[in-house]
């Protein structure tokens, strides 16, 4: 670590000093210095954003429509609201999707009711109904999803009953999501709202005979820059079949029969853990926390999966694929490790990547000195064991908790209780340990980082790489520090799996080694411009 | 893939598909960034603010900083007063801006928060300024939001000198254009030796150098004393009726500063009109340097007319820029046959139709349309070139038509915001882009054996 622990505490004190008393008290609880000797490492998270603080957070609509629903390529997603919300969800998040054979692909389209002032005054229900009709007439989709935006809840448009009516009238699946932007405190509320509706109205509505040997669902993987393509490539090579993806490169149609899987893989815990839990309750399918970002994490995840299915042949193929894949990337990765060793990274990403990328960086010699989430909950930081201790706030209570019960017809125990307990000793089955456990002593975990904290911490810690999103990327560049976007991947990718790790290392190298950084200071500011004698001097 | 766009047209009254507009607050945020030392503030839930910052950042590849009231459900029901008060307290303590420019979203507008009264009841630190504009997302588009914030600048700040005395300056409102355009406008005014107040001015704000020092409030932007002084100017030129006219009219109404509305000076005719108006108001002369540039532009178009004459083109984007681009393509001898904006308004259609009246072909013109509609037009009657923002790429790719990127937003190319599209210099760059796009296509489609070096 570059700085001693005492140094870090001083830096943090300095960061907090600018705040008015109330904000200082609040922010203090959202920042934590990792210290293995402390019995409790508690961080405050998932609370209201401080107004005016310049947060990086978005809203519940973004969490629902943008994140969870957006990647579903066979769905016409009608945003009920003024134009902005629909416009900003159009092609801005790089969830890639290739049309399934014979299937429709709506990924490049955005649909809106483009609410006008008269709709706010007299209600927008008529317009929404008509918009659904027009979508059916033009596109004849198998599923339509309607998402609510801020004004919809306030003016009282009943999007749920409109969805129900449309479903009956057109004989297709029509779902409504009450993900008004003001719900909860961040994108996180939107994840939960999307999870509830998908579980309640989409999962299990269709039965399908599958002749898959190892049927799995991929959960919380959104195929940014083709991550899911790389993951699926590896899984297929080993012999797994993906029943449904929630929701990268996924379809609503597959989700309808996703209860036929034998294991759920959870990549992003924050956004999809609700569905993963409910699946187990309702259908008896356990979930395994996996991480396909970074070769070390990928290998561990693949081994855990093979052990879960307990088939020697599968285990053998797993090892064979790991060896084959490693052979192609190990040497260059080692070279990058030599090149990068000693460098430090500052990570601030939504609700999962700030953790997942730590092993990616570690493998190439880069140490993470600060890591934080925009909207993680305490369990994402501290592990699921703290869930019983998490206090509900007024903002949480507005998000409905969906109660599911055992589906008597479809419930099937995939592994025995005893077997599950045995596996839980070895792997994160139905469990996630959170980010903090894997962080080094003296590093900082920070929740809902704001503009002030970004600048202050960057100035004090001088990381070699600042990893976050588009809003703070160029701020970092102005400070002369390379910033890699870990949301959009700066239009590169995939970064998942084996090939992805190498791609990531190459992109980091390009970012750090680009000659532009060496030109920041003009030569006339670097050295004296006086040369020899001019005008008759000595 | 845009392969789900059918050729046969079905009337749509409620479903918008792939819009050619976005909502008001982003325009207001952009306008506010053109004030020196200003922090734009979004009074609503924080998603809007993040989206708007994100989108501007993608267009300019520059930091775009703004704050939000971060509404929760409680505030959405009971009003956002407490949120705004807390926000302003934090903003001044932590970020110390000279000015806070507040815009509203559909949330705070629907619940009816009275921002003016909330702010007037607050104690703000001495020497600091707060302005606010009402920018409901369910009215108009981002250009209307821009206009509303610019209007708020003069409405809430302009001050007549006592006793009345002119500052001998010209007010210039550049409209929703890029820093590169604003630099070019300043160059022209300075070449003509005209004393001016230009607002909002995003040059040196959204095109700052990388020198290792991050400045939250960059050097650029119109200052508060300048905005106050707009009341004492000789006249106001508003470039782009939709974006700039409301502020100019407000100044005329409040302080009797004569307002002249002109087209965004893209192309020869609109630039000529701009310069002629400058001449009339100021009595200055056109410098030889500028006259030479004009002659060079005419020379270029005459010399290369065969590259673009008679070519069918579809133009889409924001009204002020589309009107000027349509006029420019006409003056180059091209045929704009589909012209569309997402921003609603009858004036746009009237203006375009007036321009096309003498043309001997049928044109499709729509205000309040979307890219899906434009795509259907193109399917029905193909064009050889598309001119508009980055989203037209979907049509360009599907129909295999070259695209020249002009307007907002341009997300998939860089450098554009540094270069002008206005004035004679900007027109030269546009001709270069248009002819290159057409010739690249011609080269690509020409058999190897028939490839030529001089075109």
Automatic annotation (TrEMBL), chain A:
Matching Gene3D superfamilies: Nitrogenase MoFe cofactor biosynthesis protein NifE, C-terminal, Nitrogenase molybdenum iron protein domain
Catalyzed chemical reaction(s): N2 + 8 reduced [2Fe-2S]-[ferredoxin] + 16 ATP + 16 H2O = H2 + 8 oxidized [2Fe-2S]-[ferredoxin] + 2 NH4(+) + 16 ADP + 16 phosphate + 6 H(+)
Signal peptide segment: none
Ranges for domain Nitrogenase/oxidoreductase component: 59-512
A Pfam family assignment: Oxidored_nitro
Family annotation (SUPFAM superfamilies): Helical backbone' metal receptor (SSF53807)
EC supergroup of this enzyme: oxidoreductase
Quaternary state and interactors: Tetramer of two alpha and two beta chains. Forms complex with the iron protein (nitrogenase component 2).
Function description: This molybdenum-iron protein is part of the nitrogenase complex that catalyzes the key enzymatic reactions in nitrogen fixation.
Stated family: Belongs to the NifD/NifK/NifE/NifN family.
Protein name: Nitrogenase protein alpha chain
Automatic annotation (TrEMBL), chain B:
SUPFAM superfamilies listed in its UniProt record: Helical backbone' metal receptor (SSF53807)
An annotated GO cellular component: molybdenum-iron nitrogenase complex
Co-factor binding details: Binds 1 [8Fe-7S] cluster per heterodimer.
Keyword ATP-binding: yes
Cofactor: [8Fe-7S] cluster
Alphabetical list of Gene3D superfamilies matching this protein: Nitrogenase molybdenum iron protein domain, Nitrogenase Molybdenum-iron Protein, subunit B, domain 4
Keyword tags: ATP-binding, Iron, Iron-sulfur, Metal-binding, Nitrogen fixation, Nucleotide-binding, Oxidoreductase
Domain Nitrogenase/oxidoreductase component: 23-438
Function, in words: This molybdenum-iron protein is part of the nitrogenase complex that catalyzes the key enzymatic reactions in nitrogen fixation.
Family from the record: Belongs to the NifD/NifK/NifE/NifN family.
Protein's name in the database: Nitrogenase molybdenum-iron protein beta chain
